[in-house]
Amino acid sequence: MPVVRSKICGITRIEDALLAAEAGADAIGLVFYARSPRAVDVRRARAIVAALPPFVTSVGLFVNASRCELNEILDAVPLDLLQFHGDERAADCEGYHRPYLKALRVRPGEDVAARCAEYPSAAGILLDTFVPGVPGGTGESFDWSLVPAEPGCPIVLAGGLNAGNVCAAIAQVRPWAVDVSGGVEAAPGIKDAGKVRAFLAAVRGA
Predict the structure, then answer these.
(1) CB within 8 A of 27, min separation 6: which ones?
(2) Domains of the chain: which residue ranges?
């Protein structure tokens, strides 16, 4: 089975970004959504990205951000990859000279393959759990059996993952990557070193 990549999202501190990198994460996520308890401002995000070692991807998470707002952030923070968690169409995600992930919140009975097909220009599709009024970071998982065996694009699996269930999730879904935030925290936006290391060890051992 191919190596499954990993992303630690909701990073708010340099020390947590370095912890994730040291423990083997392929990417870290920075939330540019003011209503999130894991939100970062431009100054802090720039400092975190500057501290990252080579070959760790910096991902910026946005929710229905205007093109002007997003361009201002990109002028200040050298993000590698964009992640859209709102109601964005494919055209809204394009034109930033960076690859993007589109996050889809999966409802019971969802036709996941059909929704993935709406974003042919995406580098991958992130599948999260649908919770009304919450764009992500719910800490709840969805029915993994809804993920098609041949989705047509790389799948990043999110939603309620932790060290205890990520092996089962990988075995069932066979995603390109997994994404965790709340499952490795001591408090919202503050990562727990033991949980981060345990999660990434579980991914490597899956």
Answers:
(1) 5, 6, 7, 8, 56, 57, 58, 59, 80, 81, 177
(2) 5-205
Q: What is the dihedral of CA 38, 133, 84, 187, to 10 degrees?
A: 20
Annotated catalytic sites, by residue?
A: 9, 128
The third-level CATH classification (topology) of the domain covering 5-205 is TIM Barrel (3.20.20)
Nearest Cα neighbor of 2 from 165, 149, 170, 144 is: 170
| Max Cα–Cα distance, the chain, nearest Å | 42
The tens place of each residue's pLDDT in the chain, 206 residues long, gives 689 999 999 999 999 999 999 999 999 999 999 999 999 999 999 999 999 999 999 999 999 999 999 999 999 999 999 999 999 999 999 999 999 999 999 999 889 999 999 999 999 999 998 876 666 556 778 999 999 988 889 999 999 999 999 999 999 999 999 999 999 999 999 999 999 999 999 999 98
pTM: 0.94
